[in-house]
Specification:
Elements: H1 5-12, H2 24-40, E1 44-48, E2 55-59, E3 68-74, E4 94-96, E5 99-101, H3 105-124, E6 132-138, H4 148-154, E7 163-166, E8 178-183, E9 185-194, E10 200-201, H5 212-220, H6 244-251, H7 257-264, H8 277-282, E11 286-294, E12 304-305, E13 308-317, H9 323-337, E14 343-352, E15 355-356, H10 362-375, E16 382-386, H11 392-400, E17 404-407, E18 422-424, H12 425-442
Parallel strand pairs: 3-6, 3-7, 7-17, 8-16
Antiparallel strand pairs: 1-2, 2-6, 4-5, 5-18, 8-15, 8-17, 9-13, 9-14, 10-12, 11-13
Helix pairs in contact: 1-3, 3-12, 4-11, 10-12
The protein binds ligand BES and zinc ion.
Ligand BES binds near residues 169 and 183.
Length: about 450
């Protein structure tokens, strides 16, 4: 068995679902395991309590004159639902065709455990790490890291570092080292439309009251124009246009429409006119309805006008959009377009800033050399931005004043957040190499 894989399989068995109060003990058990492991391999561990889930930190002995590198990861995972779509149980890691199937295998346990294994091997060989290390693994990334930014603010001095490195993003293709220099931000909200004070008989009252389901559908339909542009006043005001070099670099990745259609299984791709599929996902903002509902969803028909309807919205943001400003614009839009006869309630959710850095900077180049040494010389390193969000990344910049290097190991078909999430054993091995090369390059 690949050295270190047993530890990965052990942590994968913790159902560390941060959003579900029922799993609080499992989240803690995962954090405790990490702390014990840090100690066992010769690092100095710390477990920091927060109002939510704990933060696990490890350090080596810091020496003057060396670079201080923070490696960040998250041990929390998304819920595993829908459970019946898993081929093997969601929290029982199973290896098939060289891939480990388990919730959290890619996002993010496989990736941060590869770094941990790299560090363990270096120390076990009797070598010193070439940098001052702060290894920080939090338990709330999948719920927007609500307690990590306050933690950074309260511990600025102890967390002082020269840069942050994270493996929690993707690769364009198996075997192609990929450097991500930008992420989208996010802003979430829930919308509720309240109609009659009780569910009504749709025969007796139908025709004389606004049905909240009709109202939510009409409201939802106001978010986009037919060409895919978002119809909210001012939404694009702060969007930084794509630069020529990045449009060209992404064109160099070739035609991706077919692969994306295949990966998604959608009957056809659909997006904002005037942008390539990659640009739509990596560098354009979006408005998504993540959930919508109201009224009767059970078997057969039930002639009812429900008393309320709801939708959950999230907006992916790009530099230099700000989540607070966007949420205010969305609220104004919803108030303006809300049909008569219902009362609108808006419940703001979590948010995170977008991020972009210069991949041609000295640090960016060091990261790319590390990727080249982990993945070999066959392919040039791909320089990309990504559509997903890691809200704490911009906070590292704002609070600690440092850039973050994103060296992801996730494959396009890893099924993160979905049933049958998986991570190849070979990616774990590549991650171990990447850790060693990265610390060497950064030193
Ligand atoms: N690892 C992802 C972020 C990611 C995914 C980056 C794909 C690049 C490509 C992370 O764990 C995640 O899922 N983040 C959430 C954040 C949200 C819940 C605040 C996301 O993007 O939805
Ligand atoms: Zn995730």
């Amino acid at each position: 068995m690949t050295p270190g894989l047993d530890d990965l399989l052990t942590v994968l068995r913790f159902p560390s679902v941060s959003t579900d109060p029922k799993h609080k003990p499992d989240v803690r058990a995962n954090a405790d395991w990490l702390v014990n492991k840090f100690r066992a391999i010769g690092l100095k561990p710390e477990l920091h309590e927060t109002p939510g889930h704990p933060i696990a930190i490890a350090r080596n002995e810091h020496k003057p004159g060396r670079r201080t590198v923070m490696i960040y990861g998250h041990y929390d995972v998304q819920p595993a639902d829908p459970l019946n779509e898993w081929k093997t149980p969601a929290f029982e890691p199973t290896i098939r065709d060289g891939r480990i199937y388990c919730r959290g295998s890619t996002d993010n346990k496989g990736q941060h455990m590869a770094h941990l294994r790299g560090i363990e091997e270096t120390l076990a060989a009797g070598e010193e790490l070439p940098v001052n290390l702060i290894f920080l693994i939090e338990g709330e990334e999948e719920i927007g890291s609500p307690n990590l930014k306050p933690f950074l603010e309260a511990h600025r001095e102890e967390l002082k570092c020269d840069l942050v490195a994270i493996s929690d993003t993707g690769m364009v293709k198996e075997g192609v080292g990929t450097f991500t220099y930008g992420l989208r931000g996010i802003a979430c909200m829930e919308v509720r439309l309240h109609g009659p004070s009780i569910d009504l008989h749709s025969g007796i009252f139908g025709g004389a009251v606004m049905n909240p389901n009709t109202a939510i559908a009409r409201l939802a339909a106001t978010l986009h124009h037919d060409d895919g542009r978002i119809a909210i006043d001012g939404f694009y005001d702060d969007v930084q246009p794509l630069q020529d070099w990045e449009r060209k670099a992404w064109q160099g990745l070739g035609e991706t429409n077919h692969e994306t259609q295949h990966l998604t299984g959608a009957p056809a791709l659909w997006g904002e006119t005037g942008f390539s599929e990659l640009e739509q996902r990596w560098a354009r903002p979006t408005a998504e309805i993540n959930g919508i509902g109201g009224g009767w969803q059970g078997a057969g028909s039930k002639t009812v006008i429900p008393r309320e309807a709801m939708m959950k919205l999230s907006f992916r943001l790009v530099p230099h959009q700000h989540p607070d400003k966007i949420l205010a614009q969305v609220e104004a839009h919803l108030r303006k377009h809300c049909p008569p006869g219902v009362r609108l309630e808006i419940i703001p959710g979590h948010s995170g800033m977008p991020y972009v850095m210069d991949p041609h900077s000295t640090l960016g180049q060091a990261a790319q050399r590390a990727l080249a040494s982990a993945f070999g010389p066959e392919h040039p390193i791909a320089l990309i931005r990504e559509g997903g969000s890691i809200p704490i990344v911009q906070a590292f910049k704002d609070v600690l004043g440092v850039e973050t290097l994103l060296l992801g190991l996730a494959l396009p078909d890893c099924q993160a957040h979905a049933p049958n999430e998986n991570f190849p054993v070979s990616s774990f091995e590549a991650g171990v190499k990447l850790n060693k090369a990265l610390l060497r390059e950064l030193a």
